[in-house]
Amino acid sequence: MILLFQAACMAGCFAFFYLLGLEKNQSILFLIAWCCVLAVWMAVDYIRRKTYWNQVSGLLEELEKPYLLSELMPKSFRLEDRLYHQILRKSNKSVIDAVHELENSQKEYKDFIENWIHEVKVPLTSMYLICGTKKDEEMKKIKVCLEQLENDVEKALFYARSDTVSQDYMIREIDLYQTAVKVIQRGSSWLIQNHAQIDVEQVTDTVYSDDKWVGFILNQLLINAVKYKKDDGCQIRLYTQRQKNETVLSVWDQGMGIKDSEIHRIFDKGFTGSHGRMQAAATGIGLYLCRKLCRRLGIGISAESKEGEYTCISLHFPDGSSHFGE
């Protein structure tokens, strides 16, 4: 548009000079000078604009929250850019307000869930004590149901806290054998009812992590192993291995196994798989939460399986203190 306007102005000047009787060579020389000045001006303007937008692009790439760009954009010498900047700031302000409102809403909901869970644990504990005073079969069945309920309540609590692991952890050297034994003892009634046979004799190593969070992850892996057991029994084996720069804790079960086409999706949120669809209790949250917590704790997690034969979920603890993931 600018070039067309300049061309029209040049043509008008040339016609005006012609009517005044100015020599043709002088008119052409004037137009050449005009073109040179125009070329220099456009080159300078291009360089200044390119430098400015390179700064804006670099700033956008460095920002963790891109919607804050308008607050940090460099000032421009052009009135047009300043007007765009004002419009962008007004638009982003509404986005930032909406984000803050959403964050506050999520925090209130998370606080409510945590308080509700702590309140629920009080009657659960009372029911455990009542069941402990009576040894009849009906009470044993009730105790098993209570353990399942407590597992679900605990899962909800850890899910609510999974984004704030760094605010609720204590990294120290932990004995994986002791951690595994505590998890098994805690769910003993449910494991016994399902005829689960668990071997932990080959768990011999120590790692640096948080025993509470690791215990929760192990509990979820054991629940899955029992949930997808075969009809003829439930064989589970826990063992550790020393590999290069890491300690690997594996939970192996001789259960239904996982299809090759599904193994890469088992950690996805909400994925239940072919076997999970047969069970009304399957939610697809357990392994997803395990992976999420592992990432926060700097622990690797992997899976291998053969349908109809076995499944093995491994936790990879790096040597030294844990490092929290992104």
Q: Could you name the key traits of this structure?
A:
EC 2.7.13.3; kinase activity; transmembrane helix; 10 helices; two-stranded antiparallel sheet; alpha+beta; Heat Shock Protein 90; elongated; 2 domains; transferase; 326 residues; HATPase_C_sf
Please provide a written account of the structure:
With 326 residues, the chain is of the alpha+beta class. The chain folds into 2 domains: 94 residues, no CATH class; 185 residues, 2-Layer Sandwich (Heat Shock Protein 90). The protein is built from 10 helices and 7 strands. The strands form 2 sheets. It has a 5-stranded mixed sheet. The chain has a two-stranded antiparallel ribbon with strand order 1-3. A hairpin with a 3-residue loop joins strand 6 and strand 7. Helix 6 crosses helix 8. It starts with a helix and ends in an 8-residue tail after the last strand. The model has no long low-confidence stretch (mean pLDDT 81).
**Measured distance between first and last alpha carbons:** 49 Å
Strand arrangement within the widest β-sheet reads: 2-4-5-7-6
Report the portion of residues in β strands: 15-25%
- Helix fraction bin: 55-70%
Sum up the overall morphology in one term: elongated
Number of helices: 10
Sheet of most strands: 5 strands, mixed
N-to-C series of helices and strands: HHHHHEHHEEHEEHHEE
**Can you identify the CATH class of the largest domain?**
Alpha Beta
CATH superfamily name of the largest domain? Histidine kinase-like ATPase, C-terminal domain
Number of domains: 2
Note the quaternary state here: single chain
Q: What class would the helix/strand composition place it in?
A: alpha+beta
Mean pLDDT: 81
CATH topology of the largest domain: Heat Shock Protein 90
Rounded to an integer, what's the Rg over CA atoms?
34 Å
User: How many E-type strands?
Assistant: 7
